[in-house]
Amino acid sequence: MHKAISVGLVSVLMVLLMAACGSDPTPTPTPRPAAATATPVPQTLTQQLYEEALAANDGRIHLSFPLTADDAPAILGVFEARYPGLKIVHTQKTSAEVVEQALLEHQNNKGTVDVLDPGRDTRLMDTGLLSNAKAVFDDLKLPDQVRYGDNLAALYTPLGHGPLYNTDSISEADAPKSWDDLLDPKFKGKIVLEDRLKGFIYLTDLPAYNGRYSGLWPEERIVTFLEGLRTQDPLIVHGNSTVGNAVASGERPIAAEINMASGGRLVKKGAPVAIAPVSPHPVEQWLIAAASTGPNPAGGLLLLHWILGSEGIAKRVEFYPATSVDPASGDIVATEYERLEIELAYTGIEMAGEFSRLQARYREAVGFISN
User: Fold this and answer.
1) What is the gyration radius of the CA atoms in the chain, in angstroms?
2) Is 136 found in the same domain as 51?
3) Model pLDDT, residue 40
4) Residues of the chain with confidence (pLDDT) below 50
């Protein structure tokens, strides 16, 4: 009897001891793993700007730009379709008018423009009214040579200048292949020249460029060339349209240089003209910028991104041939540049301070004295 009690008591004590030592015979529940935390997907730059633009100025973005009233809705409507809820308010102004308006408004602490085209005028970069667009330019991978004012503005609308010839009068084999070919005696009396000589002005290398652009000519070389061109008895007229018409009609089958916006329109229309495979073609450019003091700064940066991006360029060249040098844009001049392997020589806005002086000297060299 005592022995049975002793065995039972030992069993009870063993159970209690096991419990005290944590050896609970009841299975311990396995803890659930913590729920995984979703990593937020970062917004793209354009998404961020879009949301901020929608919340400002009722989504309106003010653009002061030299687009015509007819072309602007067709071009800018693509942007509005891309970004529903945003509305571009476009005012057509020359670059000079854009700058004067912006400077006056800045003096009165009242900015009304979000994106503007100041041409080659650098004064706006010294005022503090422009947005730092580095994030936009970096996102678009713009090269350093087109950025100005520490990312306050960028060059856009690269517009080439070069010789154009009439394909009914001059065969491709006989067309000029170099600038010096224009001085060949066989072209005497066949050349038309635009009186502003812009192509030669933009071909000039300036000390202010500090070697930034390649392919340009020293000023003295251009003077010598124009003195030679003078012996070819060129017809000197005013306006690129006049030059283009003279070439297309065969009146003067070679343009020594023409603004390729005019030349490109003739090519696109199927006129009997072609771009001469002469290198380099100097490229004139303008500035474009977004304003930090406008009613919708985020909208200004978003619109700037679109204008400088592939979609904005592709839409613009439908209306303005020769405003892109990227064949992927579909620009007919860009595709011809690629096919003919024409090299381009870019220029900067520093030319603005030298333009009038060079024009006077070059006009004298070619024998044209303006009234």
Assistant:
1) 34
2) yes
3) 55
4) 1-27, 32-36
Distance set, CA 269 to CA 315, 320, 323 (Å): 18, 13, 17
- What are the pLDDT digits (tens) for 303-346? 999 999 999 998 988 888 888 888 888 899 999 999 999 999 98
Say if residue 354 is in the same domain as residue 220: yes
Q: Let me know if residue 17 belongs to a domain.
A: no
For residue 284, the one-letter residue type is E
Which residue type is seen at 101?
Q
In a domain, 264, yes or no: yes
User: Which segments within the chain are labelled E, that is strand?
Assistant: 60-65, 87-92, 115-119, 147-148, 153-166, 191-194, 235-237, 254-259, 273-275, 281-290, 344-346
Q: Are 95 and 128 contained in the same domain?
A: yes
Say if residue 215 is exposed, middle or buried (CB neighbours under 10 Å; 0-12, 13-18, 19+): middle
DSSP 254-292: EEEEEEHHHHHHHHHHT-SEEE---SPEEEEEEEEEEBT
Handedness of CA 68, 200, 279, 238 (dihedral sign): positive
Report the pLDDT value the prediction gives residue 137, as an integer from 0 to 100. 96
Instruction: Tell me: do 354 and 235 sit in the same domain.
Output: yes
Closest C-alpha among 363, 366, 358, 361 to residue 228: 366
Same domain (yes/no): 297, 238: no
The CATH number of whichever domain residue 200 belongs to comes to 3.40.190.10
Tell whether 168 and 257 lie within a shared domain. Answer: yes
Quote the tokens at residue 103.
């400077």
